[in-house]
Amino acid sequence: MSDLRELYQQVILDHNRQPRNFRKLEGANRTAEGHNPLCGDQITLYLRLENGVIGDVSFQGSGCAISKASASLMTASVKGKTQTEAEALFHTFHTMVAGEPDPAFDPEQLGKLAAFSGVREFPVRVKCATLPWHTLRAALEGRGKRISTE
Ligand code: ZN
């Protein structure tokens, strides 16, 4: 288990140091802003939705390592997925970090996103990890503008 923890930590550190899809997206047709006042995390999400498929997605912003790594891994995970698939992934991710503990749940099914499975032990960090996902959902639903975890 400690090996796994170390691996997860490395994934988060790596994505914090070199966030994927960290840029403004030219040709985005959806954007949303997310804010986590508890920690000061700020994210702008850019999305190009084409016939219900996430053709491209990127983000900019500033925040703690967890929020930045989560945004990086989130964008990498949902690119090329349909809106429905992305929603389902959000649900699974949210269950992993904040849902009722389920012994049958295997974080491995989430691939690298499983790196955030330890976050559930730190309630303050849950909002950092889920902020990019809430922002994604706002962008997908076209609610746009600005969401806050508070
Ligand atoms: Zn944070």
The percentage of residues in β strands lies in 15-25%
The CATH topology label is Sufe protein. Chain: A
Helix count from the secondary structure assignment = 4
Poorly predicted runs of 5 or more residues: none
CATH architecture: Alpha-Beta Complex
Order of helices and strands: HEEEHHHE
Largest sheet entry: 4 strands, mixed
Mean pLDDT: 92
> What is the CA-based Rg, rounded?
14 Å
Number of strands: 4
For the record, give the distance between the C-alpha atoms at the N and C termini, rounded to a whole number.
33 Å
Sheet with the most strands: spatial strand order: 3-2-1-4
What structural category characterises the helix and strand content?
alpha+beta
Number of domains: 1
Shape: globular
Explain what you see.
With 150 residues, this protein is of the alpha+beta class. The protein contains 4 helices and 4 strands; from the N terminus they run H-E-E-E-H-H-H-E. Helix 2 (65-78) packs parallel to helix 4 (123-140). It has a single domain (2-144), classed as Sufe protein. Chain: A, CATH 3.90.1010.10. Zinc ion (ZN) binds at residues 36, 39, 41, 63-64, 66-67, 128.
Annotate the secondary structure layout.
Layout: H1 2-17, E1 30-36, E2 41-50, E3 53-62, H2 65-78, H3 83-98, H4 123-140, E4 146-148
Parallel strand pairs: 1-4
Antiparallel strand pairs: 1-2, 2-3
Helix pairs in contact: 1-2, 2-4, 3-4
This protein binds zinc ion.
Short description:
By secondary structure, this protein is α+β, with helices and mostly antiparallel strands. It has helices at residues 2-17, 65-78, 83-98, 123-140; strands at residues 30-36, 41-50, 53-62, 146-148. It contains 4 helices and 4 strands, in the order αβββαααβ.
